Amino acid sequence: MPLLLSWQNRSPLSEYHLPTYEIIFKNGDDLRQDMLVVQMLELMDSIWKRNQLDCCLSTYPVLPMGTK
């Protein structure tokens, strides 16, 4: 089951760059499939934007931390 972790950045400069950090932690999942899906969504979003269709997609970086 995914776990959403969120915390506030107390740096005075945080109002300009990421005042809140959020990450999703998944244990026991193979994130390679998640990476592929996110890459496909980013590709589709760029194609749509080139054709003046902005679907306002929000993607997130995926970082596998293990071998599984």
What does this molecule look like?
- Pfam families: PI3_PI4_kinase (PF00454).
- The chain has one domain (3-50).
- 28% of the residues lie in helices and 18% in strands.
- It contains one helix and two strands.
- The chain has one helix at residues 32-50, and strands at residues 3-8, 20-25.
- A two-stranded antiparallel ribbon has the order 1-2.
- The radius of gyration is 15 Å and the shape is flat.
- The mean pLDDT is 84.
Largest sheet: 2 strands, antiparallel
Supply the number of helical segments.
1
Instruction: Work out the strand percent.
Output: 15-25%
Give the overall silhouette: flat
Low-confidence segments: none
Organism: Teladorsagia circumcincta
Protein name: PI3K/PI4K catalytic domain-containing protein
Pfam families: PI3_PI4_kinase (PF00454)
Keywords: Kinase, Transferase
What attributes characterize this protein structure?
68 residues; alpha+beta; two-stranded antiparallel ribbon; 1 helix; 18% strand; Kinase-like_dom_sf; 1-phosphatidylinositol-4-phosphate 3-kinase activity
Sequence-ordered SSE layout with sheet pairings:
Blueprint: E1 3-8, E2 20-25, H1 32-50
Antiparallel strand pairs: 1-2
Can I get a quick summary?
With 68 residues, this protein is α+β, with helices and mostly antiparallel strands.
